[in-house]
Amino acid sequence: MRRVAVLHGGISAEREVSLHSGAQVIQALQTAGYEVVGVEVNADLSALISALTPPPDVVFNALHGRFGEDGTLQGVLDYMGIPYTHSGVLASALAMDKAAAKAVFAQAGLPVAPHRIIEITELADHHPLPPPYVVKPVNEGSSVGVHIIKAGDNRSADIVRGWSFGPAMVEQYVPGRELTVCVMEDHALFVTEIVTGEEFYDYHAKYAEGGSHHVIPAKIPEEITRRAMEISLAAHRALGCRGATRADLRFDATGNQLVLLEVNTQPGMTATSLLPEQAALAGMDFPSLCAWMVERATCRV
Fold first, then answer.
1. What is the pLDDT of residue 85?
2. Which distant-in-sequence residues (6+ apart) come within 8 Å of 225 by Cβ?
3. Which of the residue ranges 1-15, 44-58, 284-298 would you say has the lowest mean pLDDT?
4. What global pTM score does this model have?
5. Active site residue 14
6. How many angstroms separate the CA atoms of 7 and 266, rounded?
């Protein structure tokens, strides 16, 4: 029986999400017949290394955000020679750095919104882009720290005072519908439309019960479905991802325009998460999805 260590928790702003993901993954892998040990990760790297000594057969990486999703942990596991799920060092680092990811996407000919990187204090002086635009941390996930600035908005000074994320990305706001596509290795699954009563698909909408409603398959023109899946698979490949990813896009029906926002190399594995939902529609239950990830785990040795 293969022994799998599930890493969850971490030290990012997404710690609670990761704890939920990890708990469900542990249960699913036990159901699938693996010997499973949960490892709650904190700021003590030596404790993590001790927990992985002797090494398990595979690490299931259920961490989200910085230090778990950005290539840092992946480098540690590569050094230790332990196979792990999801993408490797380079793809993880590129995807987590929104500026680097957009440069890769643009080079691959994929549609991205106009954007620039600023020091957050610039926001207090003037609009760095014509409103409406989005302000977001360069290296966070789950919509942590994201704000939409509209014409006449007077929240800039408050945002600057409360900012703790380093440089910011400002990006032209793309109106329209929120779409997401999950990719498993070389195959895009479905297009889901995310409908929420919030201003946008923020942290609350992502994880709170009833925070959003998923329409799957999305009720959009067939050509847009095909194109969204092509863009998502191309983005997965351009970054050099492996395993499962999720691409987030916006669809502006007035201009029939699709824009790629980002690729998540560690899609959520909670009850409200999109990857398990798309996999289920494809005929793969949650234990089978987790097992699929374990069986494709690898590392750079």
1. 97
2. 191, 217, 218
3. 1-15
4. 0.89
5. yes
6. 12
User: 136 pairs with which residues across the strands?
Assistant: 169
Q: Would the pLDDT of 275 be above 90?
A: yes
Q: Which of 139, 207, 227, 250 is catalytic?
A: 207
As a whole number of angstroms, the distance between CA 171 and CA 134 comes to: 5
133 catalytic residue (yes or no): no
Catalytic residue among 78, 140, 171, 262: 262
Q: Which domains does the chain have, with CATH numbers?
A: 3-85+290-295 (3.40.50.20), 94-112+175-265 (3.30.470.20), 115-172 (3.30.1490)
Q: How buried is 232 (Cβ within 10 angstroms: 0-12 exposed, 13-18 middle, 19+ buried)?
A: buried
- C-beta atoms surrounding 233 within 10 Å: 18
- 186 a catalytic residue: no
What pLDDT is attached to residue 86?
97
- pLDDT tens, residue by residue, 56-78: 999 999 999 889 999 999 999 99
Is 207 an active-site residue? yes
